[in-house]
Structures are given as C-alpha cells and as structure tokens.
Structure to design on (453 residues):
C-alpha cells in the first residue's frame, strides 16, 4: 500500500498550481499549450476518481449481457466481436442501455462539457 | 529565407511585383505547410497564401488528392463562381519552394467558435445554412471533364476503408462496431449521380465574412462520389461546436440547407444525407483513434494530439444519439 496524498490529490495540486500561478504569466501559443496541459491533468484526476466504480459496474453489465467472465478489456473485446458478427444488436435486451451507460461514464471523464453529453445528462436527471 | 525564394518566384509571374514581405507560417505538419505573405507592387500590395509540401515531401498520403489537384479544383471553383480563392501560381521546380501553389488571400474568419460567437458574424449566421446549400450545389455541378484525376469512392468502399482503419487500431469499441453494422445494413447503394465531392466541407474549412461564405478551403480530400456525402458531413455534430440544435455547422437547420441546395437546381435525398452523417460521425471517431496512434508511435508526441484521442467518446455519444436515441 502506497502512502498519501493520493494520486488524485497530487494531480489536482499540480493542476491548480499551473492554473492559478503559471497561466497568468503566459500568453499566445504558450498559454494555449498550458491550457491543454491543465485540461489533461483535470481529465486524469477525473479518471482516477471515477474509473474504479464505473469499470466495476461496466463489468457487471457485460457479464450479464454476454454470460462470460473476464477483465473489462476482454469483455469489451468480446462484445465488439459479437456485434460485428451480428449475434448481438440493438434488439438484444440491455444492449442499448449498456452502451448508453458506458458512453456516459466515458464522457464524464473525457469531456463533461460536451453539449451532447450535457443534454443527455439532463435526461437522466 | 522563404521570403528570398518567394521574391524570386513572384517577380517572374506577377506583373509589377518587386518582392514579398511579411511571410509568416500559419500552419504546418511534417508534410504540408501554409504561409501568408504580401506581394509588393508599386500600385499596391497583394495579400497571398502559399500552400506547399517542402522539398522531400512530394508524396501525398493515399487519401489526399494532392496539392496540384487542389490548385486545379480551386481554380475551377473560382471560375464557376463557387466562393474560392484565386490561384495565382502553381509552383515549378525553378521556384525552389517544393510542390504546391500560391493563391490570393481571402480576408475573413475560419475559426469555427469565433464565427459562431462573435458579433461581427451575427447578421451572417442565420443565412449561412441556406447559403452553404447553394455553395454545395455549385460545387457539385463543376464540369467533370475538367476535373483532375480523383479517386472514385462509393459508400461500400468507404465503409470498407474505415473498417480497415478501425481494425488496424486494435481498439475494441462496441459503439463503433454497432455503427459499422448499421452502415452496412443501410448502405443506399450506388448514387443516382456521381459528382465531385469536396470531402471535408464543414465549419472550420470555410472563410466567413460579415456577408457570409467567402471561400471554401482544404480540397485535399476531394473525390468522385455521392454528392449527398458533403451534405451529411457538414451536419456531423463535431462541426456544430456546441450549437447542437443547429445541424448545419451550428448555423441552421437541415431544411434551410436543403432549400438552398434545391433552389440552386439540384435534388436532395434526405435518407442518403442521414446515412452520410452517421458515416461522417464514425469517420471522425476513427480519425481521433488515428491521432492517438500517431501520438503513441511519434513523431508528433504533442499533448494536443494525445487529447484528440480522448475525443473519440464524443463521436460515440453522437452515434448513439443517431442510432439508439433515448425518449425525448
């Protein structure tokens, strides 16, 4: 077991430092690059906070859908193959709901400000 | 250095030119660069743009039509009254500038978010969807006997290429698989009519002024195929930049786009347009995967490229919104 602060806390500390102390000192292309860098750290912090829970739920759904066990990567590969072969499609109970949930969990990490995501999130609430 | 080469070039073909000034690189990857500069003449400077592959980068990637074809297409468009820069000179070996061409600079904005937000374009915005329909109709009517040699792409061929690209990424994505199946199941077959297809006609590749569309840029993916492909691509959600209820580049409705196209004397097939919108959404998603791969394998190890890899999920939610919409 590793000591603390946790990776999330450390990553957030760096992101805050760059955002609050360094960004005001930059301009032009450097300011743009710094914004990208801060966005990356924010994404990493979101993933560190959310991935464990969303992956576990995803594995549960995939096991129910496919009737097999495995890692989240293996199960995604298996689902991709079954869709490619036409064995599973949108008429398969649970598939659409699974893909929607999985995709929403990805957007929550990748691009929580993406307009389509915000629209669909409003539908959930 | 490039100013000296450009100066030597312009005096040979531009009447009255004495040299160039203000050369600045606007964008550039490893194989293609865009420069802006001014041609100096006693009776007034001419704003110009250089598009070139530097020496040693002659070979175009398989999908690109190449800079020579791009110059020819822009010139044809210009002559036909489709908003386009005037091509002034196609580079020759004596120019010592590589391969490419020089065109007259068109003033205006290409950055999509500015076009969608800035006051300067407020009057133009509501007109753009319909205007784009008219521009596309003109583009699809360019005389085929004058076109450079271009690839012919059917829907089936494109699905095959995207599937190959996607499989080569070894990136199992159930939503992409679903989209590939949908495309195969809904392939509308050969188009009733084959025309020039721009291939990358979207918000971001247009120069917009307060009066509307001033020029269509980036013809490097031009090919022959189903004209409805361009109408579908311009509607892909990724090019709406947040204005998701205005399918045509964030400007307006499909109905306005279609009306502009049909007012210019061409017919729209909405089912095909929808098919190409799904195809285009998947296409951008797979391109995001390609960016991730190039980031991993180099030479472009930039943060921007890395982050584009993380935008594939945007196309997944958009594909689900198209193929498995939830109740409204």
């Amino acid at each position: 077991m590793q000591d603390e602060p946790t990776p999330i806390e450390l990553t957030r500390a760096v992101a805050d430092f760059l955002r609050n102390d360094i960004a005001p000192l930059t301009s032009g292309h450097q300011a743009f690059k710094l914004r990208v860098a801060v966005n990356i750290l924010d994404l990493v912090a979101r993933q560190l906070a959310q991935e464990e829970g969303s992956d576990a739920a995803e594995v549960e759904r995939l096991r129910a859908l496919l009737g097999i066990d495995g890692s989240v990567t293996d199960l995604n590969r298996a689902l991709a193959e079954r869709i490619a072969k036409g064995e599973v499609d949108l008429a398969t109970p649970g598939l659409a709901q699974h893909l929607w949930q999985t995709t929403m969990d990805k957007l929550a990490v990748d691009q929580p400000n993406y307009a389509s995501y915000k629209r669909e999130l409003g539908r959930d609430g | 250095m490039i100013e000296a080469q450009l100066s030597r070039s312009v005096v040979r073909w531009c009447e009255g030119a004495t040299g160039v000034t203000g050369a600045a690189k606007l964008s550039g990857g490893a194989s293609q660069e865009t420069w802006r500069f001014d041609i100096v003449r006693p009776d007034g400077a001419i704003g110009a743009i250089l598009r070139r592959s530097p020496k040693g980068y002659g070979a175009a990637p398989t999908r690109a039509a190449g800079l020579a074809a791009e110059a020819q297409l822009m010139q044809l468009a210009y002559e036909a009254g489709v908003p386009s820069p005037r091509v002034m000179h196609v580079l020759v070996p004596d120019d010592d500038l590589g391969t490419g061409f020089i065109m007259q600079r068109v003033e205006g904005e290409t950055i999509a978010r500015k076009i969608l937000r800035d006051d300067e374009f407020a009057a133009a915005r509501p007109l753009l969807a319909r205007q784009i329909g008219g521009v596309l109709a003109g583009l699809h009517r360019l005389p085929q006997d004058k076109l450079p040699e271009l690839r012919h792409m059917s829907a089936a061929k494109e699905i095959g290429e995207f599937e190959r690209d996607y499989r080569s990424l070894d990136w199992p994505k159930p939503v992409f698989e679903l989209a590939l199946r949908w495309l195969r199941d809904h392939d509308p077959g050969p188009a009733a009519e084959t025309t020039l297809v721009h291939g990358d006609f979207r918000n971001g590749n247009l120069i917009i002024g307060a009066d509307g569309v001033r020029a269509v840029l980036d013809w490097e993916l031009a090919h022959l195929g189903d004209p409805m492909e361009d109408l579908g691509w311009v509607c892909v959600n990724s090019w709406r930049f947040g204005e998701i209820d205005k399918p045509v580049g964030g400007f307006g409705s499909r109905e306005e786009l279609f009306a502009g196209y049909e007012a210019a004397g061409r017919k729209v097939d909405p089912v095909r347009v929808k098919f190409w919108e799904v195809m285009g959404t998947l296409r951008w998603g797979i391109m995001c995967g390609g960016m991730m791969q190039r980031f991993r394998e180099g030479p472009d190890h930039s943060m921007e490229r890395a982050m584009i890899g993380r935008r594939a999920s945007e196309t997944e939610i958009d594909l689900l919104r198209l193929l498995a919409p939830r109740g409204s």
User: Anything to note?
Assistant: The mean pLDDT of chain A is 96.
